[in-house]
Design brief:
globular, 17% helix, 2 helices, 150 residues, single chain, six-stranded antiparallel beta sheet, alpha+beta, five-stranded antiparallel beta sheet, Jelly Rolls
Length: 150
């Protein structure tokens, strides 16, 4: 059996480069996509303001947050942790988790594996503008990608 690895070109991005989009209140800036990493992972920068975050949920992909700026309150399983800049929080696939930004601005690198999960974020961005008016659509998208809101 022969395994052939696809050669990829190197990618260098300036700090503000990447395709940005809105996912609810979050600004997500794509740094590396599934195309860039042969589907292994995707890398994005998440930016938002105090009080925003994600409600408790679980999904079949892994996420790792590396806090660049501000302070995040992370809840993973039954463990709650305040994560200042420089902190890393890893969410295993299937783990119930959520987060809230405690500082005026919060920025984190978000590593998603496998990269195919980035389709969830993009579809929410395209179809859901507000959870109070678009909850039915949000639930449809969550079901499609195996995400459960708690």
């Amino acid at each position: 059996m022969t395994i052939t690895l696809q050669r990829q070109r190197p990618i260098f991005l300036e700090s503000d480069e990447g395709r940005a989009y809105q996912m609810l209140t979050h600004t997500i800036t794509r740094k590396l996509t599934s195309v860039d990493t042969n589907g292994y992972y995707a890398l994005a920068e998440l930016t938002d303001t105090a009080g925003s975050g994600a409600p408790l949920h679980s999904h079949p992909w892994e996420e790792t947050f590396y806090v660049l700026e501000g302070e995040f309150e992370m809840l993973i399983g039954n463990q709650q942790q305040i994560c200042p800049a420089g902190s890393t929080a890893h969410v295993p696939a299937g783990a119930v988790h959520g987060f809230k930004i405690l500082s005026p601005v919060g920025r984190a690198l978000l590593l998603i594996a496998p990269a195919s999960a980035e389709a969830f974020y993009l579809e929410v961005s395209d179809r859901v503008s507000d959870l109070t008016t678009d909850m039915e659509t949000m639930q449809e998208i969550c079901t499609k990608y195996g995400l459960e809101l708690r």
